Amino acid sequence: MLYDLNIAWSPATSRADLERTLKFSSTLGYDVVALNHTITPPIPPQITNPLPKFTNAPDTIPTSSTTRTATTSNASLPTVLHRATLLFADPSRNHGLPQLASAYDLLAIRPTTSDAFEKACVSITEASLISLDLTTKQPFHFRPKPCMAAISRGVRFEVCYAQVLSPGADARARAVFIGNVAQLVRATRGRGIVVSSEARKVLGLRAPADVVNLLNVWGLSTDKAREGLGALARGVVVNEGIRRSGFRGVVDVVGVAERGEADMAAGDKSKDGGGVGGNRKRKNGDGDGEPPQMSKRQAKKMKAALRQKEAAEKTQDKDTAMET
Amino acid sequence: MVRIKERYLLVNILYPSEIGSRPDIPDVVVINQPTTDELTPVALMRGIRAEVAAFFGDHGSGAIEGAAFSVKYSSPATSTFIIRTSRASYRYVWTALTFMDIVPVKHGKPCTFQVVHVSGTIRKAEEEAIRRARNLIFAAQNGQSQRSADPLANMFGSSKRPTHEGAGADRFDVDDEESDVEMGEVSDG
After folding, report:
1. CA 20 to 30 Å from B169, out of A84, A204, B26, B27?
2. Does the pLDDT at position B87 exceed 80?
3. Nearest Cβ partner for A217 among B95, B115, B150
4. How far is CA B62 from the centre of its chain?
């Protein structure tokens, strides 16, 4: 399974262009791609997801099982996920993040200042990718300490190769990009780097093997680069999926068990007895067909009352006997 | 006797920017359409040299110049060619190919160059080219897109990794583990 977690999308992108890109990425061998919507702060109060939906995109949460079925059923398009990238300059204003995360399948942040970068590495929990524009000189160094802290928290760094392949990138931008990649690889020792394209046009895409070679030339070893296309990217997708569907990212409802025959019979019986209510849910469990369910405490109370009554009767009997 | 070690790159030219423009032809055929006959081996080498010079400067140019850099086979009809370089400098050539986005002729069409196989002998590169051409024909007949089961297998060895089922365009990818890079390094010399 190969992943490309960043295909640039903007409201100006036409659907035909996008379909072309998706078809080509499927031809090149990518199984899962994510359309990326870059958001500049401030985050709007009403967040809607403008990204176009594709027929075989799983509307539900992208757990591993759903993505697999989608790719085998239709080979011409890869599985399409929706991702938002937030430009992040001021670390004190990040209160819209949870809402943003819930509107998209993936959330990445692109810190542009030193403070924002530190914060993104160390403390922001909503985003699982740190995506940087590596063609510009960053106003901070990639120090190993925050970078490794980020990776041990499960946050991944993203290297987008189409930034340097696009015709807009001149010699200076390419040099800065390569320098930044080298710094990033040094700071993280090559761990936790996810490779994606950020292709604006179909010509920005490259085959996976070409990408691996490119990163090898830039200093990331072959097996790490392969991991960045496959296993690490998959980890990001699955983690984000379970964070959205499961309970605190720990417990997930995979499926509901089938009802047994005995349960079915009981259910039918109670429905028959319900009569007037039809298929509406009965409240408090006090149906008119069967005896009401009794709680333990109530049963105890009733038992106690019964015993008292019996005792009272006995004493009365004794009294009458004494009198006679 | 010390042998000079080489790498043979099998390269496909793909035309992705025309997908969807012709609804009567399947996408596979559009992507793998023939290249113009103006793309002679000389023009191709000139283009690659220029790109290596732009990206690696004099150092890169020198590295591929000293090696026996040449185009061994070129077939514009199938948009396929095989390049020979020395083992030390094949990554320069590969990177240059990745960075090229037009056919290196006058008024060249936009395209991408995909290195589909790297091997130590030209025989394996040739076998792979034949295999790919066959699969392409099958894929075009079926009208489905051509997908290899494991796109990275050819380059970096597929023997140890479990191959996943599905996308059954070609099943033959699994059995070519003897022709990859690592194998060439061990067996040569």
Report:
1. A204
2. yes
3. B95
4. 23
